[in-house]
Amino acid sequence: IVEVKDAKKEYLLGKTKVHALNGVNLDIHEKDFMCIIGPSGSGKTTLLNLIGCLDSPTTGEVRLFDKYNVSVLNDGDATRLRRDNIGFIFQTFNLIPVLNVFENIEFPLIIQNVAEKERKKRVDVLIDDVGLQEFVKHKPDELSGGQRQRIAVARALITNPKLILADEPTANLDKENGHNIMEIMKRLNAEHGVTFIFSTHDQRVMEEAKRIVVLSDGVVESDK
Amino acid sequence: IVEVKDAKKEYLLGKTKVHALNGVNLDIHEKDFMCIIGPSGSGKTTLLNLIGCLDSPTTGEVRLFDKYNVSVLNDGDATRLRRDNIGFIFQTFNLIPVLNVFENIEFPLIIQNVAEKERKKRVDVLIDDVGLQEFVKHKPDELSGGQRQRIAVARALITNPKLILADEPTANLDKENGHNIMEIMKRLNAEHGVTFIFSTHDQRVMEEAKRIVVLSDGVVESDK
Ligand SMILES: Nc1ncnc2c1ncn2[C@@H]1O[C@H](COP(=O)(O)OP(=O)(O)OP(=O)(O)O)[C@@H](O)[C@H]1O
Ligand SMILES: Nc1ncnc2c1ncn2[C@@H]1O[C@H](COP(=O)(O)OP(=O)(O)OP(=O)(O)O)[C@@H](O)[C@H]1O
Ligand SMILES: [Mg+2]
Ligand SMILES: [Mg+2]
Question: What is the per-residue pLDDT for A5?
């Protein structure tokens, strides 16, 4: 479902070149439930951004769903591909500050022109799933860190995507909420065949993954 | 060093009242190395903001250093007290986007009118301590999540405060960097008598704490 071929990502900072990714080769199969681990700065977020069509590699290739080459997609095609097939949980949440909990989760369905009654039904189910029933009217800055993270999780799941990229989805969550989120994801993977790629430092997420890829200094160090 | 007496924090959201803290009683002693744990939304950040003079309680009292009552301090006094005595590591980092790594860590020393040579010496030591030597010229948005968190840690330690409040300081860090940060803090506590109050979901931080306070629904549930 995803093929990464010798992907490199370089940034130019003044005169210094920063190699965020230094030749990553990785094949991800449908229904994988895998995580990418590695030290802070090893390139996990950069790699997820390439797979999620949010960025393109400096050199190398990223192919999605056996037909799209991310490096040569134009902006319009990348946005459509992402909107209709991928759910992304950002490490920095990226919520819309002026919308409340309900509206933030509902937003991807408005972009997909889903009817209002159907939207309300689906948003209510997810708000219940992530335990934010009492906070639906709160705006992001009127919530705790972990509550904001759970909005980011719900918003990525609401469109029923084939592929979900979760960048440190439990970093701000306590044990119970973290376990709860993992259970929702395991159920989507087992019952609906959704492919999951996590980036994490959290032992609890690693224990649930069926495959662990270790990234170090921008390259894959191991893959089991 | 800190006394919290029946502190309550209420927010009004439309017509609903949200009780973020619902009567917290807590005494913190000099040289404590303690953590506050509890579910997402239980009031940890709210409590740390009261102790850190960033906010005042709706009712109840917070007393610092046996003489200051946070609830009645004016803004100027609160800022001075905080600047000269407290280091705060924010859950959302709160870095200055237009300054690079070096300048973000140096900033509190500029406010304290420390001479340039002395500033450079102290910032270099901390950049080394948190492992950001190769990234000094990067701006926050040119860094990874865990790298940004480490700037937030270094910036809180640079003024050698008596009291350090760390809100989830290891949430975005891998095992090695997380362990490294805890070692720096333990050394400051053991050798320089600095008082530490952490808020965390991370087992690794809890294991190092000498005292664990459990918060639930805005009140202290246990304290050992
Ligand atoms: N400005 C606000 N307006 C309304 N409610 C708020 C506001 N800020 C916080 N809250 C509520 O107060 C409660 C406590 O929030 P707080 O950030 O202290 O929790 P926390 O224990 O730090 O959680 P986390 O572990 O998720 O960071 C939450 O339920 C939150 O929704
Ligand atoms: N815009 C940029 N300009 C320069 N360097 C960058 C930029 N964005 C990221 N980097 C660098 O690329 C490297 C990889 O960053 P990335 O965010 O992918 O790491 P990560 O594995 O997600 O780390 P963490 O676990 O801390 O979130 C880091 O060393 C970072 O400093
Ligand atoms: Mg990252
Ligand atoms: Mg918090």
Answer: 96
Exposed, middle or buried: residue B115 (CB in 10 Å: 0-12, 13-18, 19+)?
exposed
Q: Which amino acid is at A78?
A: A
Q: Are strands A195-199 and A163-167 parallel, antiparallel or unpaired?
A: parallel
Q: How far is CA B88 from the centre of its chain?
A: 3
Share of residues in chain A with pLDDT > 70 (%): 100
Residue B62 pairs with which residues in a beta bridge? Answer: B4
The predicted structure's pLDDT at residue A210? 95
What is the distance between the alpha carbons of residues A46 and A199, in angstroms, rounded to a whole number? Answer: 11
pLDDT for B119-168, tens place per residue? 999 999 999 999 999 999 999 999 999 999 999 999 999 999 999 999 99
The total of other beta-carbon atoms located within 10 Å of residue B54's CB is: 17
Indicate which atom in ligand 1 lies nearest the CA of residue B201: 25
Question: How many alpha carbons fall within 13 Å on the CB side of residue B28?
Answer: 30
Which residues approach ligand 1 with their CB closer than 6 A?
Answer: A 135, 138, 142-147, 172; B 11, 13, 18, 20, 38, 40-46, 91
Q: Which residues pair with B198 in a beta bridge?
A: B35, B166
